[in-house]
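Example record

Each entry pairs one chain with its bound ligand, acetoacetyl-coenzyme A.
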Amino acid sequence: MTPPYETILIEDIGRVGLIRFNRPKAFNALNSTMIAEIMDALEAYDRHPDIGAIVLTGNERAFAAGADIKEMASESAVSILQRDHISTFDRIMHIRKPVIAAVSGWCLGGGNELAMSCDMIVASESALFGQPEINLGVIPGAGGTQRLTRAIGKALAMEMVLNDRRLTAEEALRFGLINHVVPVERYLEEALALAQSIAERAPLALRFGKEAVNHAFESFLSDGLADERRAFYFCFASEDQKEGMQAFMEKRNPAWKGR
Ligand code: CAA
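Structure tokens for the complex follow.
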């Protein structure tokens, strides 16, 4: 798969790779082509030596209104299992660079699951988060029940999954689902600024830091602590650790090399 893509647009902005969803008429509903193209672009940016962080975004009216219902409607249990297009979502878990979702408008179903698969979420005041699958007679299928529960706790996750409770951006911030809420005209700019600030930091430490935080959700505390410590000690094999600590003591900015 090579750009130009059919359903997304990509743009390099400094050290940030920007991926914009581009199915505005369908509120960026995630069809299988779009899911595959998003993952392909993420992986390309993950390999790109001059890119340090990635931003995923939609448009002001919609981050994404969920998986494409028109594409799924006629599936049987066997055909959808055999096609298994939702497992494509899992590829985001292997992206090593930080990924930030810049969310405005509808962030529903698979759209919310995609946003929650990112490392951070910057939202506009008009963002609305929900898992409305119950209205379609199904449940979230791309991690919603797991990631939502870990992020906001059982009580509210139950209400969202079982009763289509939606969260405003302010609520999502209060309950710990997202990082920042900003006026709609600034959400992308703020997400890009956050990504740029992160992208300028020590690449190896970023990678280990992301892995270690994610391990907190995937392992027992003792395993997570041991993994974290090993990664911390391994940082000391890098030139960046020497440079970072030296620069601190010399009261200057470090020059990172990524090795
Ligand atoms: N899939 C396919 N098409 C979608 C869509 C979706 N998820 N969401 C919106 N669209 C399409 C509509 O069909 C419509 O297309 P047409 O113009 O061709 O009719 C267009 O986008 C505009 O939508 P509406 O006319 O419905 O606009 P609205 O302003 O009245 O409502 C909305 C907006 C609240 C987002 C509404 O469209 C909606 O509820 N969408 C579905 C949300 C949803 O249920 N998402 C979960 C999907 S299942 C899932 O994601 C499973 C999973 O876990 C992987």
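The domain at 8-199 is CATH 3.90.226.10 (2-enoyl-CoA Hydratase; Chain A, domain 1).
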